[in-house]
Amino acid sequence: MLHLEGLSKSYAGGDPALSDVTLTVPKGEILGLIGPSGAGKSTLIRCINRLVEPTTGAVRLGDEDLAQLGKTDLRRARRRIGMIFQEYALVERLTVMENVLSGRLGYVPFWRSFLRRYPARDVQQAYRLLDRVGLMDKADSRADALSGGQRQRVGIARALAQEPELLLVDEPTASLDPKTSRQIMRLITEICQERGLPAIVNIHDVPLAQQFMQRIVGLRAGRIVFDGAPSELTEDALTTIYGAEDWNAMRKGDADQAEAEADAQRRLEAIAQ
């Protein structure tokens, strides 16, 4: 379980990026973070694993307050947190398998990682993960030869290779087309459910968040202004988070786009037959 208590982040000479955020994510829950640009979503995720240092507050993963750890203990604790990035953060010149195995760097001696001689158990696990994300046939391909959706699948497998207790996902669909975005979100949610893995997903696409998230937290100006089920995300709630907008028109546009994509897929299947 993850528990944030009074988490705040301020930068010199600027407005607070986060203000007194208190939040609990129980085991197995998939939580979506939504909000306008600059609301603090990415800052919140990065404060949890201390890629950004919190100004005040506690970040408790189980019984351990990550905000109080020194460098050595923090490196150890980060092994418990898998991270999936918007821009994939792969090593382009390495193979898919090598990128997945990099998720084990916190567990193996330096000489093994330098020589790329990982334990057999880690290699077997990497193959299982590649099979789970649908990339078994790409194990020996270089990362720079993959499509965006394939790269994100490698990022998912790499994060899972850590055997994490918490998954942090930062805008995983921002660079993907709508169909691939749904496939990636479906994969993330299915894997979390299979493993009972709690996840926080920073996502800018509100309909996608409503479709796949179990719980949604809305941030505005660094503060939580909504916390509830996707079904509770009414027009009034969206206005509180984002400001005034014609939300019915937006939803209709998203529904029309989804139907157009489904129709195109049906046409392709008909041609193939």
TrEMBL record:
- Leader sequence range is none
| Keywords assigned by UniProt, alphabetized | ATP-binding, Cell inner membrane, Cell membrane, Membrane, Nucleotide-binding, Translocase, Transport
- Enumerate the InterPro entries for this protein: AAA+_ATPase, ABC_transporter-like_ATP-bd, ABC_transporter-like_CS, ABC_transpr_PhnC, MetN_ABC_transporter-like, P-loop_NTPase
Pfam families with a match to the protein in the record: ABC_tran
Molecular function terms in GO for this entry? Answer: ABC-type phosphonate transporter activity; ATP binding; ATP hydrolysis activity
Q: Which domain of life is it from?
A: Bacteria
What region holds the ABC transporter domain? Answer: 2-246
Q: Which GO terms describe its cellular component?
A: membrane
Question: Which NCBIfam families does this UniProt record tie to the protein?
Answer: ABC_phnC
Q: What is this protein called?
A: Phosphonate transport system ATP-binding protein
